[in-house]
């Protein structure tokens, strides 16, 4: 399922909502050389036209979200989860935060909110993320999501037209609780982890 009927996700400080065509210009304005240098497919100059094309290209294959601060509506960044083209059971997550809003944990909060929704709405078994070997900020987000390192591989980076070493982390969808042996009227105990995995959407 793509994000055609994707409702906003609200956290304590943020609102994640589906990226729309009018978001192209403000998103493009936030992209910088420093951010682009950490991303695989966001080359500079990142124009409004490129951003608009990205929204059209990615919406059918996943969940693409602008991240806004709930208190004032300020646009702080982007987070996405896309189904892998070669494996429908896997998805990849990515994110970036505007330079003016870095250092506040916004992306960690946004990614944590999107992850369970990605499992539910995309129907995948594994979600992965990758980053350059020295990108400690992204690895901190991955660890906060419960992702574990699974190794490195060289991947083509269109933003720079070359292959680069990328270190990947992933998390697997937890299996449903085993209810075998439960008598009539007996409920399985639910853990904090189970409650955290539940999607806020029907």
Q: How much of the sequence is in beta strands?
A: 25-35%
Low-pLDDT parts are 182-202
Please tally the β strands and state the result: 8
- CATH topological fold name of the domain at 9-128: Aminopeptidase
Mean pLDDT: 89
What does the oligomeric state look like here? single chain
Overall 3D geometry?
A: globular
Our count of helices gives 6
CATH architecture of the domain at 9-128, by name, is 3-Layer(aba) Sandwich
Give the CATH H-level superfamily of the domain at 9-128: Gcn5-related N-acetyltransferase (GNAT)
Distance between the ends = 14 Å
CATH class of the domain at 9-128: Alpha Beta
Helices and strands, in order, run as: EEHHHEEEHEHEEH
Give the strand order, joined by hyphens, for the main sheet. Answer: 1-2-3-4-5-6-8-7
Helix content: 25-40%
Q: Give a quick account of the main beta sheet: strands, pairing sense, barrel closure.
A: 8 strands, mixed
Description:
It is a single chain. The chain has a domain at about 10-130: Gcn5-related N-acetyltransferase (GNAT) (Aminopeptidase, 3-Layer(aba) Sandwich). About 25% of the residues lie in helices and about 30% in strands. Mean pLDDT is about 90; it is low at about 180-200. The chain has about 200 residues and is α+β, with helices and mostly antiparallel strands. Helix 4 links the parallel strand 5 and strand 6. Helix 1 (about 25-30) packs across helix 3 (about 50-60) and helix 4 crosses helix 5 (about 135-145). It is globular, with a radius of gyration of 18 Å. The protein has 6 helices and 8 strands; from the N terminus they run E-E-H-H-H-E-E-E-H-E-H-E-E-H. Strands 1-2-3-4-5-6-8-7 form an 8-stranded mixed beta sheet, with helices on both faces.
């Amino acid at each position: 399922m793509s994000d055609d009927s994707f409702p906003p996700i609200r956290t304590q400080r943020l609102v994640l909502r589906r990226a729309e065509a009018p978001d192209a210009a403000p998103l493009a304005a936030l992209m910088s050389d420093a951010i682009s240098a950490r991303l695989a497919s966001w080359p500079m100059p990142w124009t409004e036209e490129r951003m608009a094309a990205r929204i059209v290209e990615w919406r059918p294959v996943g969940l693409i979200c602008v991240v806004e601060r709930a208190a004032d509506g300020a646009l702080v960044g982007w987070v996405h989860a896309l189904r892998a083209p070669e494996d429908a059971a896997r998805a990849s997550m990515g994110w970036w935060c505007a330079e003016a809003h870095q250092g506040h944990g916004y992306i960690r909060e946004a990614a944590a909110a999107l992850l369970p929704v990605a499992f539910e709405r995309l129907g995948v078994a594994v979600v992965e993320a990758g980053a350059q070997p020295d990108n400690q900020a992204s690895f901190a987000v991955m660890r906060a999501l419960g992702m574990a390192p699974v190794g490195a591989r060289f991947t083509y980076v269109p933003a720079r037209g070359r292959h680069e070493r990328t270190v990947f982390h992933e998390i697997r969808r937890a299996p449903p609780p085993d209810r075998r042996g439960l008598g009539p009227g007996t409920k399985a105990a639910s853990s904090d982890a189970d409650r955290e995995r539940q999607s806020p959407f029907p």
